[in-house]
Amino acid sequence: MAYVSVPKDLSKVKSKVAFNLTQRQLICFGAAAAVGIPFYILTKDTLGTSTSGIFMVLIMLPFFFLAMYEKDGLPFEKILGNFIRFLLHEQVRTYQVENLYRQLEELESTEKTVSSQSSSKSKKGGIHR
Q: Cα angle vertex 73, ends 94, 93, to 5°?
C-alpha cells in the first residue's frame, strides 16, 4: 500500500500552476527568459557564444533568485523592503508605559479639590444666580 506524506501546516503549501511551478516562479522564469534569450541572440556574434552564454546566465540569475528565495514565508522583495524601512526610520525605541497609579492619584486629587471647592462654596452661602 502506498503512503503519501501530508504536511501538518497546510498554510505553507503553495498551489502549483504549470510544470509543478508556482505562479510567482513562472512569472520570474518568464521574465528571465524574456531578458536573457534576446541578450544572447543579439550578442553571440560580437562576443562569441561562450562569453555571451555566460553573460546571459549572469543576467538571468537575479530573476531566478527572486523566484526561488523565500525566508519565513516572505519573498525577497518584502524582506528587502522591511530592511530598507528599518534603515530609514528612527532606530531608538523607548519603552513607555502608561502609569495607571499616577492617573488614579491625579483623579483622586482632582476629586478632593472639587469636593473642597464645593464645600467651601456651600459654607459661603452657595451659588448665587
A: 5
